[in-house]
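Posting for a labmate who doesn't have an account.
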Amino acid sequence: MTTDGASSAPAAVVRRLEGPGAAALAELVETFEDLQTVLRCCERLVTELAVDAEADAVVVEALWTMALLSYARCFASGEAGVRLTDEDLSATQPSGDVLEWHQLLLQLRDHHAHPVANPREQFSVGVAQDDDGAASGVAITSARQPLVDDLTVRQTGAIAYALSGLVNNRIESRQGEVFEELKKTPREELEKLVQLDVTTPTTGA
């Protein structure tokens, strides 16, 4: 990303910025990246759920779990305090039941990320009886949880898309504010900042 007035050419040196402005900008970028992950997961899920044969349950669960975790992080309490809120949801989608969908997604996140409970299947152990009612063995039964449906995936993607635009605007605004402050900073002060390694890795032949 570059700010207005900044050169598009690769920077000779990049130095780490500290302070609330830089922290807020980094947090906004992290939120935007999480929203983009939600979108990519939803796009893959729509494709996976649309196949003629039965969808691969492992792929669907993996993508859906990642989407839920990424979505929920966007609303977690960050150090800079600039992550998303319920008010942001209402602002991007003033009509409809977006807040109810939001709460549902957070509940689903808790379900899929539960540290103990299996989110896919519930198991029960029972006793098998013969015709006389005597115990004849141990029976293990299970109830499989249904896969996420196409409507839920598309609605989640729509919410993430709307929020991405809001966050992108905030990134541009915050980036401009940080750059304006930097233009006032003497070169000798900039030279004291820790230099970052921004070398682009090369791929092998």
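Reply:
Got it, the structure tokens are right above this. Residues 1-7 have pLDDT under 50 and may be disordered.
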